Amino acid sequence: MARGKLTIELCLDSQSEAKALYTSLKAEEMQPSPDRGQVKVSLDGGCVRLEIEPRDLNSLRALMNSFLYLSHAAYSVLKEASGR
Questions:
Q1: Domain boundaries 6-82, corresponding CATH code
Q2: What is the pTM of this model?
Q3: Distances (CA, A) of 44 to 26, 33, 55, 81, 82
Q4: Which pLDDT score, from 0 to 100, does residue 32 have?
């Protein structure tokens, strides 16, 4: 099966929020998951970019769901901490 790549860009209201989200996701990126594929997390201004290179379609779904869930959880904590 041919491999593909999915890129997700999450742009936040402020660069400080983006950096906090990036730091949270970067820690998860460091956890190797070679049986599923690779995830690269990068920061570009106020946007966090996730580049997912899955092994197969099921791995894409699993990695995407995991990182989107983690993004949501981290963003919710940021909003709660800022009082918004």
A1: 3.30.310.50
A2: 0.85
A3: 14, 24, 26, 23, 22
A4: 63
